[in-house]
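Morning, I've got a small favour to ask if you have a moment. Here's the protein in full, and shout if anything looks odd to you:
***
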Amino acid sequence: MRPRLAPPPAATALLRALLLAVLLLPFLAPLLLTLAGSLHPPGRVPTAGALWPEEPGLAAYAAAFALLPLARGLANSALVALLYLPLALSVAACGAYGLCQMGPRARAWSLALLVLAASVPAAVTWLPRFWAFHQLGWADTWLPLLAPALYGGSPLLLLLYYVAMRHVPQSQIDAARLEGLGHAAVLWRVVLPQVRPATYAVAVLALAWCWASFEAAQLYLQSPQMQTAPALLYQLELLGASHRAALLAAAAVLAAPMLLLALWLPAALDRSLEEH
């Protein structure tokens, strides 16, 4: 019996690319529709079913920046994200490391509580959080937007870090502790270098959730100078259908940084896995 010939690498790579494109199509469709809609001329009510404009152009992008202080909103969003990301990563990493060092019973209870916390609908917490932040005097500041970073951004991010860290041999941690390293030094010098792919994934997810934060900005930010970009998009929505092209253009601008991160992440993960 002749051995079966393996398909050539080029054919395998092409097949994988086609399969990935098919899987991503449902997720890319809203982005493609947004980009197509942003090319319509501003100031016109879009015709139903007209996905591609007869005369595509970039005038809607200029209109979006003219109608709203979108540049300031993007700068505010970027500043909030820069403050949010290191805090969320630090808390998630410390929490996951702490889970790994717990005893079996305490770890099981902690994981159950984290899963329960991740299952609670966000809408349930809006009223008590709104009352608490107003009592603290945090209204019209960025502090309510940064508050989720104090628990790692999301229980799911902490769990993702935990799944990665539990594969780090405990013997390495014990050896580092015997050499006199504290837990912070062990986490920074021993554990985190071995879970770099998880760090990339957690960072991108945390940044995406912070960048797209809309409800918190609507609830707590009143001053125009404090508004972030997602909150400004709602103001364009209120202007009516004639400004739909400008709204989609602003949405495309807001989505661009996350799209670049999504394109960067697979290559970064591949390089990190090759290093290990």
